[in-house]
Specification:
- 47% of the residues lie in helices and 13% in strands.
- The protein is α/β, with parallel strands linked by helices.
- It has a single domain, classed as Aldolase class I (TIM Barrel).
- Strands 1-2-3-4-5-6 form a six-stranded parallel beta sheet.
- Helix 7 links the parallel strand 5 and strand 6.
- Helix 8 runs antiparallel to helix 9.
Protein backbone atom coordinates (compact mmCIF):
# COMPACT_ATOMS: atom_id res chain seq x y z
CA UNK A 1 0.00 0.00 0.00
CA UNK A 2 2.96 2.30 -0.50
CA UNK A 3 1.07 4.30 -3.15
CA UNK A 4 -2.30 4.49 -1.34
CA UNK A 5 -1.97 8.18 -0.55
CA UNK A 6 -0.98 8.97 -4.15
CA UNK A 7 -4.15 7.21 -5.29
CA UNK A 8 -6.27 9.07 -2.75
CA UNK A 9 -4.99 12.39 -4.04
CA UNK A 10 -6.33 11.52 -7.50
CA UNK A 11 -9.87 10.70 -6.30
CA UNK A 12 -12.48 13.08 -7.72
CA UNK A 13 -14.70 15.23 -5.55
CA UNK A 14 -18.21 13.85 -6.03
CA UNK A 15 -21.38 15.07 -4.34
CA UNK A 16 -22.72 12.59 -1.74
CA UNK A 17 -19.61 10.39 -2.03
CA UNK A 18 -17.44 10.07 1.07
CA UNK A 19 -14.01 8.55 0.48
CA UNK A 20 -12.63 6.59 3.40
CA UNK A 21 -9.37 4.81 4.13
CA UNK A 22 -8.35 1.85 6.27
CA UNK A 23 -5.58 2.91 8.66
CA UNK A 24 -3.67 0.47 10.93
CA UNK A 25 -1.61 3.03 12.86
CA UNK A 26 -0.80 6.72 13.37
CA UNK A 27 1.42 6.88 10.30
CA UNK A 28 -1.43 5.53 8.20
CA UNK A 29 -3.74 8.15 9.69
CA UNK A 30 -1.32 10.95 8.88
CA UNK A 31 -0.98 9.76 5.28
CA UNK A 32 -4.77 9.61 4.92
CA UNK A 33 -5.23 13.08 6.37
CA UNK A 34 -2.53 14.55 4.12
CA UNK A 35 -4.29 12.98 1.13
CA UNK A 36 -7.54 14.72 2.04
CA UNK A 37 -9.41 11.70 3.43
CA UNK A 38 -12.12 12.75 5.91
CA UNK A 39 -13.29 9.32 7.08
CA UNK A 40 -10.97 6.62 8.41
CA UNK A 41 -11.47 2.99 9.42
CA UNK A 42 -9.43 1.56 12.25
CA UNK A 43 -9.19 -2.23 12.22
CA UNK A 44 -8.03 -4.78 14.77
CA UNK A 45 -8.91 -8.46 14.93
CA UNK A 46 -10.93 -10.03 17.69
CA UNK A 47 -8.59 -13.04 17.55
CA UNK A 48 -5.02 -12.55 18.77
CA UNK A 49 -3.52 -14.89 16.15
CA UNK A 50 -4.99 -13.00 13.21
CA UNK A 51 -4.10 -9.60 14.65
CA UNK A 52 -0.49 -10.68 15.16
CA UNK A 53 -0.30 -12.07 11.61
CA UNK A 54 -1.95 -9.00 10.10
CA UNK A 55 -0.55 -6.17 12.23
CA UNK A 56 2.34 -7.77 14.14
CA UNK A 57 0.90 -6.89 17.55
CA UNK A 58 -1.71 -8.05 20.02
CA UNK A 59 -5.29 -6.85 19.82
CA UNK A 60 -4.84 -4.88 23.03
CA UNK A 61 -1.73 -3.16 21.66
CA UNK A 62 -3.63 -2.16 18.53
CA UNK A 63 -6.57 -0.83 20.53
CA UNK A 64 -4.29 1.25 22.76
CA UNK A 65 -2.66 2.76 19.67
CA UNK A 66 -6.10 3.61 18.29
CA UNK A 67 -6.94 5.77 21.29
CA UNK A 68 -4.43 8.40 20.19
CA UNK A 69 -5.64 8.21 16.58
CA UNK A 70 -9.28 8.74 17.56
CA UNK A 71 -8.30 11.73 19.70
CA UNK A 72 -6.37 13.24 16.77
CA UNK A 73 -9.18 12.52 14.32
CA UNK A 74 -11.78 14.23 16.49
CA UNK A 75 -9.52 17.26 16.81
CA UNK A 76 -9.06 17.27 13.02
CA UNK A 77 -12.79 16.86 12.33
CA UNK A 78 -12.31 13.46 10.71
CA UNK A 79 -14.96 10.76 11.06
CA UNK A 80 -13.86 7.42 12.55
CA UNK A 81 -15.18 3.88 12.28
CA UNK A 82 -13.85 1.15 14.54
CA UNK A 83 -13.73 -2.20 12.76
CA UNK A 84 -13.50 -5.64 14.37
CA UNK A 85 -12.00 -8.24 12.03
CA UNK A 86 -12.56 -11.99 12.55
CA UNK A 87 -15.69 -11.10 14.53
CA UNK A 88 -17.37 -14.39 13.61
CA UNK A 89 -14.45 -16.76 13.13
CA UNK A 90 -10.67 -16.94 12.74
CA UNK A 91 -8.52 -18.91 10.26
CA UNK A 92 -6.10 -19.82 13.06
CA UNK A 93 -8.20 -20.07 16.23
CA UNK A 94 -11.46 -21.10 14.46
CA UNK A 95 -14.07 -19.98 17.05
CA UNK A 96 -14.14 -16.41 18.38
CA UNK A 97 -16.17 -15.92 21.60
CA UNK A 98 -18.91 -13.31 21.37
CA UNK A 99 -17.62 -11.85 24.64
CA UNK A 100 -14.35 -11.05 22.90
CA UNK A 101 -16.18 -9.03 20.22
CA UNK A 102 -18.27 -7.21 22.84
CA UNK A 103 -15.11 -6.38 24.82
CA UNK A 104 -13.50 -4.82 21.76
CA UNK A 105 -16.67 -2.94 20.80
CA UNK A 106 -16.90 -1.48 24.32
CA UNK A 107 -13.35 -0.22 23.98
CA UNK A 108 -14.18 1.51 20.71
CA UNK A 109 -17.26 3.10 22.29
CA UNK A 110 -15.15 4.48 25.13
CA UNK A 111 -12.86 6.06 22.55
CA UNK A 112 -15.86 7.83 21.03
CA UNK A 113 -15.94 6.31 17.54
CA UNK A 114 -18.97 7.24 15.43
CA UNK A 115 -19.52 3.75 14.04
CA UNK A 116 -18.54 0.14 14.69
CA UNK A 117 -18.13 -2.40 11.91
CA UNK A 118 -18.07 -6.18 12.35
CA UNK A 119 -16.24 -8.20 9.70
CA UNK A 120 -16.71 -11.83 8.77
CA UNK A 121 -13.13 -11.90 7.54
CA UNK A 122 -13.07 -15.50 6.26
CA UNK A 123 -16.73 -16.07 5.40
CA UNK A 124 -17.74 -18.44 8.20
CA UNK A 125 -20.59 -16.48 9.83
CA UNK A 126 -24.12 -17.85 9.91
CA UNK A 127 -27.34 -15.79 10.25
CA UNK A 128 -28.31 -16.66 13.84
CA UNK A 129 -24.81 -15.81 15.07
CA UNK A 130 -24.83 -12.56 13.10
CA UNK A 131 -28.22 -11.49 14.43
CA UNK A 132 -27.30 -12.22 18.05
CA UNK A 133 -24.02 -10.28 17.95
CA UNK A 134 -25.52 -7.23 16.25
CA UNK A 135 -28.59 -7.29 18.47
CA UNK A 136 -26.36 -7.36 21.56
CA UNK A 137 -24.53 -4.23 20.42
CA UNK A 138 -27.70 -2.45 19.28
CA UNK A 139 -29.33 -2.98 22.66
CA UNK A 140 -26.21 -2.01 24.59
CA UNK A 141 -25.54 1.16 22.57
CA UNK A 142 -28.77 2.66 21.17
CA UNK A 143 -28.02 5.22 18.49
CA UNK A 144 -24.56 3.86 17.65
CA UNK A 145 -24.22 3.20 13.91
CA UNK A 146 -23.40 -0.44 13.15
CA UNK A 147 -22.03 -1.78 9.88
CA UNK A 148 -21.19 -5.23 8.52
CA UNK A 149 -18.63 -6.80 6.21
CA UNK A 150 -19.47 -10.22 4.76
CA UNK A 151 -18.07 -12.72 2.30
CA UNK A 152 -20.08 -15.32 0.40
CA UNK A 153 -17.90 -18.35 0.96
CA UNK A 154 -20.73 -20.78 1.72
CA UNK A 155 -23.56 -18.91 0.04
CA UNK A 156 -24.55 -17.28 3.35
CA UNK A 157 -23.57 -13.72 2.42
CA UNK A 158 -27.00 -12.25 1.69
CA UNK A 159 -28.67 -14.25 4.45
CA UNK A 160 -26.17 -12.69 6.84
CA UNK A 161 -27.01 -9.24 5.45
CA UNK A 162 -30.67 -9.79 6.34
CA UNK A 163 -29.73 -11.07 9.81
CA UNK A 164 -27.52 -8.04 10.41
CA UNK A 165 -30.29 -5.69 9.24
CA UNK A 166 -32.72 -7.25 11.68
CA UNK A 167 -30.07 -7.07 14.39
CA UNK A 168 -29.53 -3.33 13.94
CA UNK A 169 -26.91 -2.83 11.20
CA UNK A 170 -27.57 0.04 8.81
CA UNK A 171 -24.49 -0.04 6.56
CA UNK A 172 -22.66 -2.73 4.60
CA UNK A 173 -19.29 -3.12 2.94
CA UNK A 174 -19.30 -4.59 -0.56
CA UNK A 175 -16.97 -4.88 -3.52
CA UNK A 176 -17.47 -4.40 -7.25
CA UNK A 177 -17.49 -7.87 -8.79
CA UNK A 178 -16.86 -9.40 -5.37
CA UNK A 179 -13.14 -8.63 -5.66
CA UNK A 180 -10.90 -8.72 -2.62
CA UNK A 181 -9.68 -10.91 0.21
CA UNK A 182 -7.01 -10.99 2.90
CA UNK A 183 -3.48 -12.46 2.58
CA UNK A 184 -3.58 -13.40 6.27
CA UNK A 185 -6.89 -15.24 6.00
CA UNK A 186 -6.07 -18.50 4.20
CA UNK A 187 -8.92 -19.66 2.00
CA UNK A 188 -10.88 -16.40 2.29
CA UNK A 189 -13.06 -15.80 -0.76
CA UNK A 190 -13.78 -12.47 -2.37
CA UNK A 191 -15.99 -9.88 -0.74
CA UNK A 192 -19.76 -9.61 -1.07
CA UNK A 193 -20.71 -8.33 -4.53
CA UNK A 194 -22.00 -4.76 -4.56
CA UNK A 195 -24.41 -5.55 -7.40
CA UNK A 196 -25.94 -8.54 -5.60
CA UNK A 197 -26.19 -6.57 -2.36
CA UNK A 198 -27.96 -3.62 -4.01
CA UNK A 199 -30.37 -5.91 -5.89
CA UNK A 200 -31.11 -7.81 -2.67
CA UNK A 201 -31.83 -4.69 -0.62
CA UNK A 202 -33.88 -2.94 -3.31
CA UNK A 203 -36.06 -6.00 -3.90
CA UNK A 204 -36.81 -6.06 -0.16
CA UNK A 205 -37.83 -2.41 -0.26
CA UNK A 206 -34.65 -1.07 1.33
CA UNK A 207 -33.72 1.97 -0.74
CA UNK A 208 -29.99 2.33 -1.35
CA UNK A 209 -30.00 5.41 -3.58
CA UNK A 210 -27.77 3.53 -6.04
CA UNK A 211 -28.61 3.40 -9.76
CA UNK A 212 -28.36 -0.30 -10.61
CA UNK A 213 -27.80 0.23 -14.35
CA UNK A 214 -24.87 2.57 -13.73
CA UNK A 215 -23.53 0.16 -11.10
CA UNK A 216 -23.55 -2.64 -13.70
CA UNK A 217 -21.65 -0.38 -16.11
CA UNK A 218 -19.06 0.36 -13.43
CA UNK A 219 -18.68 -3.34 -12.67
CA UNK A 220 -18.06 -4.22 -16.32
CA UNK A 221 -15.52 -1.41 -16.62
CA UNK A 222 -13.57 -2.52 -13.57
CA UNK A 223 -13.65 -6.24 -14.31
CA UNK A 224 -12.45 -5.63 -17.86
CA UNK A 225 -9.57 -3.54 -16.52
CA UNK A 226 -8.63 -6.18 -13.96
CA UNK A 227 -8.65 -8.97 -16.52
CA UNK A 228 -6.29 -6.98 -18.74
CA UNK A 229 -3.67 -6.67 -15.98
Amino acid sequence: MSDADALALRLPSVSKVIWNALVPNMRGYERAKEAGIRFVDLVASASESHNKANLNRTTEESMRDFEAIVERAHADGIRVRGDIATAFGCPFEIAVPRERVIWQAEWYVRMGVEEIGLADTIGVAQPRQVYEVFQSLALAYPGLKLSAHFHDRRGFGLANVLAALEGGATAFDASIGGLGGCPYAPGAPGNLSTKLLVEFLEEMGVKTGINLEKLEEAEKLLLNAVHKV
